[in-house]
Design a protein that fits this description.
alpha+beta, seven-stranded antiparallel beta sheet, 19% strand, globular, disordered C terminus
Length: 481
């Protein structure tokens, strides 16, 4: 079997030019969402360098799609960084083409990259024969990489002396293989340090840890009890393992496919996969990156429950939207006269990222999927079970006013749609109810697709509002609070 990259594999490169870490990304679709989570952690406060490799033997249309895919993904993960990241586009396998073919393909790659990579800094578009390690072409590429890396390092954010001292403490006073530590244990280590350079008081340590976390140098995961907070020292290493173990292509038999199609994983399974980590830490770590959400069976509809869900031995459950692989249930239908809203990507080659969809599928159940409630007299004829149906592209739930909501993404039309409907049409007030859902959707879009230009369309059935007597489109201002 052909050997493929699983998840993200970091490589430490020490050269005469510079020292750097290169992250080798697996290319198959199972990793698209978790790749973004990893790169977000790396690109929080300091720009990165992205090498985008394109096989020049491919059809121009396929090259265009791939350049736009990766540029959209890069924009999504780098938008929080105050500086632009650098992108170098490399055309490979040029030696297998005739000079005329090479020139034509490079012209196409150049023009595509200049349009697609508009929010980051396009450093260069060049061709490279990767089979020749020692060549003038490779020397020029190495020089460009050295210069770009030097420029990026010069933009590294400054940190205080106390932050430097804390980083030095992590590197010099803690075991090198320690990936994480609780705040209570860190205080014990600081108190035992003979140099006594750092104040072990919790009130002193927490602000320093938060600053280092905001700079992307560590990850600080707070808890209600500060002493139970976690400090993750090597988040890239843990993200690599999470990425490779949980989101591995099933064809990679050496990795464990932990979830059924439902995306529901007992926490006990997570503990078996990552025995070297504290289970509380690894759970909070994955929740922090919005890879999963803690759930219980009362929140899960029957078609989403894991196998043997009737067993009382399952323990805590985690829901991973990226692992959901079920089609839209046949019971999910949208009546003709529903309140509707849709958000459509304006550009042909741009798209909503899978990271955006998966975070949305995590946030919506967290916000709206509640256990069954007692029916009020007005709606006693309705089933007010507020658990949700979730499938690979959408979610459906029923609220305590008897209104059903469906949110679904279409890759074909690059659109996200919301539909609301109720069997009781006396006073649904869809516009009022849409506020909370649209707020979650738009926040997720702002967080993960900030540069997408979208068209928003709203349609109301006659019963949606007394201000509209027929099925018509309304101004978006009517949806604002």
């Amino acid at each position: 079997m052909e050997r493929l990259t699983a998840g993200i594999i970091p490589h430490q490169v020490d050269s005469p030019y510079s020292n750097m870490v290169i992250y080798d990304l697996a290319g198959h679709h199972q990793y698209f969402s978790s790749h973004s989570a990893c790169l977000e952690a790396i690109s929080l406060d300091s720009p990165a360098i992205f090498l985008l490799l394109q096989d020049l033997r491919k059809d121009p249309e396929d090259m265009t799609k791939e350049v736009y895919y990766w540029s959209t993904m890069i924009d999504g993960v780098c938008h929080k960084c105050p500086q632009q990241s650098s992108v170098i586009v490399v055309g490979t396998h040029a030696d297998l083409l005739t000079p005329e073919q090479r020139s034509k393909k490079m012209d196409h790659l150049m023009s595509t990259a200049k349009i697609a990579i508009s929010h980051q800094k396009l450093e260069s578009v060049l061709s490279l024969n990767l089979r020749k390690i020692y060549s003038e072409e490779m020397d020029q590429f190495s020089g460009l990489l050295y210069k770009t890396n030097k420029d990026v390092l010069s933009m590294a954010p400054p940190i205080s002396m106390m932050c430097h001292m804390m980083l030095a403490f992590f590197n010099e006073k803690l075991p090198p293989d320690m990936a994480s530590i609780s705040l209570s244990d860190l205080i014990v280590h600081v108190e035992a340090d003979q140099d006594k350079l750092i104040d072990p008081e919790c009130s002193t340590l927490v602000p320093i840890l938060k600053t280092l976390s905001e700079k992307g140098l560590i990850l600080y995961i707070p808890s209600e009890d500060p002493l139970n907070s976690w400090i993750v020292l090597h988040k890239e290493s843990i993200l690599k393992k999470v990425n490779g173990a949980l989101f591995a292509d099933p064809s990679l038999k050496e990795y464990i496919r932990v979830a059924s199609n439902t995306g529901i994983v007992p926490r006990a399974v997570i503990q078996k996969i990552f025995p070297e980590y504290n289970i509380e830490m690894i759970t909070q770590f994955m929740i922090h990156f919005e890879l999963c959400q803690a759930v219980d069976l009362s929140h899960i509809d029957t078609n989403m429950a894991p196998e043997d869900s009737s067993s009382s031995d399952l323990g805590p459950l985690l829901f991973f939207p990226a692992l959901v692989n079920v089609d839209r249930p046949s019971s999910v239908t949208v009546p003709k006269n529903s309140f509707g809203w849709s958000m459509i990507v304006r550009s042909t080659n741009k798209f909503f990222t899978t990271r955006f969809l998966h975070v949305l599928l995590r946030r919506l159940p967290s916000e709206f999927a509640l256990p069954a409630v007692q029916a009020t007299p007005k709606y006693s004829h309705l089933n007010l079970n507020r658990r949700c149906d979730v499938w690979s592209k959408g979610i459906k739930w029923l609220n305590n006013r008897g209104v059903t909501t469906i949110v679904e993404m279409s890759e074909t039309f690059q659109s996200l749609s919301l539909a609301m409907f109720s069997p009781d049409k006396a006073d649904p007030k869809y516009l009022e109810l849409a506020h909370s859902v649209l707020a979650v959707i738009k926040k997720a879009c702002q967080d993960f697709c900030p540069h997408l230009e979208v068209l928003e369309i709203v349609s109301c059935p006659p019963e949606a509002s007394s201000d509209h007597s027929d099925d018509t489109k309304v101004e978006l201002s009517s949806l604002k609070k």
